[in-house]
Each structure stands twice: as structure tokens, then as C-alpha cells.
Design goal:
The chain is built from three helices and no strands. With about 110 residues, the chain is an all-alpha fold. The protein has one domain. α2 packs antiparallel against α3. The radius of gyration is 29 Å and the shape is elongated.
């Protein structure tokens, strides 16, 4: 061990101490029960948070689709009057349909995961 640096020796000792502590903690029923309880709690909370995230993003996508629908309603009379081209009308319709699809698919994923 004479050729090994001090940092490497400290790292080796730390790894061995960690393994010994983990082995001793694994033998304790209380520690293993708390570890299992923590894993179960974390998995349930993470599942609920994933579902909540999908619902919140779905709501925002549907709100954006509603804004796109409002733009479509605003652009249609202008298109009828010949003030704007049909490209703006098509763009507003595509925006609305795309975000409507994103919102509905987000809620559909929530339903499939429940």
C-alpha cells in the first residue's frame, strides 16, 4: 500500500465502511421496514404527481386551444371581408386543433394510467 495515494486510501476505507454500515443496517428489522415503507410511499407519491402533471399540462393545452379558437373566430370575419389571407385562418385552425389534440391526449393518458 506504499504506492497508493492518501486520497485513494481514504476512498477505499470509506467504501469499506459504507458496505459494513449497509450490511449492519440490513440486519436491523427496523431499518429495513423503514426503507421499505419509504420506497412504497415514494412510489405512490410519484405516481400521483405524474397523474397530476398530466392533468395540469392537459388543462393548459386545452386553454391554449381555446385561445386558438378565439383567434380563429376573430380572423374569420376579416377573411370574409378580404382583409387577410386564408393562410392566417388556416394557421389559427391548425394551432387550435393541435393544442386540442395535445390536451385531450394528456387527459387520455391519465385515464389509461388510473
Amino acid at each position: 500500500m506504499a504506492g497508493i495515494s492518501t486520497a485513494r486510501k481514504i476512498g477505499l476505507v470509506a467504501r469499506v465502511a459504507t458496505r459494513v454500515a449497509a450490511r449492519q443496517a440490513g440486519r436491523s428489522r427496523r431499518v429495513s421496514a423503514l426503507t421499505r415503507a419509504g420506497r412504497v410511499t415514494f412510489s405512490h407519491f410519484s405516481r400521483v404527481l405524474r397523474l397530476l402533471w398530466l392533468q395540469v399540462t392537459g388543462f393548459f393545452f386545452l386553454a391554449l386551444a381555446l385561445l386558438g379558437g378565439g383567434a380563429l373566430v376573430d380572423e374569420y370575419p376579416k377573411y370574409q371581408a378580404g382583409k387577410v389571407s386564408g393562410a392566417r385562418l388556416v394557421l389559427a385552425a391548425l394551432f387550435m386543433l393541435l393544442f386540442f389534440y395535445f390536451g385531450v391526449s394528456s387527459f387520455w393518458r391519465v385515464r389509461n394510467k388510473s
